[in-house]
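Team,

Forwarding the record for the chain on the shared tracking sheet. I've put the sequence and predicted structure together so nobody has to dig through attachments.
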Amino acid sequence: MADLSRIDKHITLVAVFHIVYHALGLLVGLVIFSVLALIGRLTDDPVAATILAWIGTFIGTFFIVLSVPGVIGGFWLLRRREWARILTLIVAALGLIDIPLGTALGVYTFWVLIQDEAVDEFRKRPEGSDVAGEESP
């Protein structure tokens, strides 16, 4: 395997960080949904069960909807797709309000992906090829 450039290593790190961070967000969403639904079922009050189910559905869906673009962007950022760079920048901008981890990830993402070397890295690769230079199916 060829020695990766400095910017290439940072792009890969940004991608992996987004995948891990947003996969944890997916997990949190699923756990919140499941736990509140379970607590609702364990109560003898049908009104409480309904309210907890609605709250769990709302909060769980909120976390999942916010996390899916981050996982998708991170995965395709590994493949060096230009649209994934843009998506990841948008996700990072939205994550800046999530203090402290989202802010740190957002600042690092911006620092890496708006550098001229990073932009050139994405532009030099054809849309139909992956990181290794092979054609994708």
